[in-house]
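Practice problem: predict the structure.
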Amino acid sequence: MSGANFILLINLSVAGLLAAAFMAVALHDAGRAPARWFAFGYLLGMVYSAIEFSIPAFSDARLPVVAAFAVFLAATIAFNAGLARKYGVAPPWSPMLFFLFAATIAVYFVQDLPRQSLVRMMAYQLPYAVMQFVGLAIVWSSRQRRGRLELILMAVLAASGLQFASKPFIAHALGGWGANPQAYLQSNYALVSQSLGTVFALALALLTLAILARDVLAEVISKSEMDMLSGLLNRGGFTRQAELAVLGAVRQGVPVALVIADLDHFKSINDGFGHASGDRVIETFAGLLREAASGHHAAGRIGGEEFAIILTGTNLAGARLFAEGTRSAFGTLPIDGLPADNRCTASFGVAELHPGETIADLMRRADEALYLAKNAGRDCVRVSAGPGGEWPANAMVVSSRSG
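Answer:
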């Protein structure tokens, strides 16, 4: 068995393993269309390797050569479809399928050219290069945030495209790609070409697997930190996000404030109108906080009827005004399941981070301010002075008594 035959068998096995790996990711979540497309692409890669391995058995290799070309080009299209699904880009189906048809027809007819013709070799290799650059364009055009893995993926796609474009020149430098298709696997070029294919196929597969695994992990973490009823962060998730917000604010030298809220007389709502009505009260209040957070702040349900929102770039006076606005808005909202004249209220505690404090210190002081609001008759806002009773230099001291 020649070295190229051995590499081809390795390619066949690797493609099968990669297809199985992507299918395992797809089975983790029925909605993971990208993984299914990647799996399909590597299944086509197995078919391509099998056809290539069988070519020496044909007396007339024109049809199997064209079939191998079309199957491998279809594999790159399937891979691009997976990239498009992953990065929220509309797959360019019409151009890609037309290109597949046109390139296959061209490869069929260039079989009549001399075996070592540059035009013939270019017709076979350039379509692969084009599809790699289409994949690069898909990732580049995505509006999703591109991380380090995406940058590496684009670099590998570019390198893969260039190696396909360079293969005719590599073949010429190595003495050609065999006197006929049956002799291809015995040539030095076949060994180099199949080896390059293995390297880039593995690199692209491992990168896409890493990206999918990263996304699955992020989704698992997100779900573990989410309170399902309110749609806000749970206590653990909120604490983690608040810690990050505090670290970022300290690093940037901007203020950060915390507002803690507690629904007033919530137990009486559950007892008098049922837990379903209580759930709707929680959902309504959480909706106010979620709208206020709007992707810039972190809001969470940190207890049964207790909520918190961390306000980066907001000082004590601004956070107090936010709390007053939320209190007023919530008090006017009708709640499904409650009498029309029944309005729910909430009490609020506000604190601003002082130098040297941790998120635990900030939460403790905001909680103490909330306790003062509860003792003052509820449905009001109270603010916390600094650790020693002093006010922050940038805070405007205002009355926090409810109107």
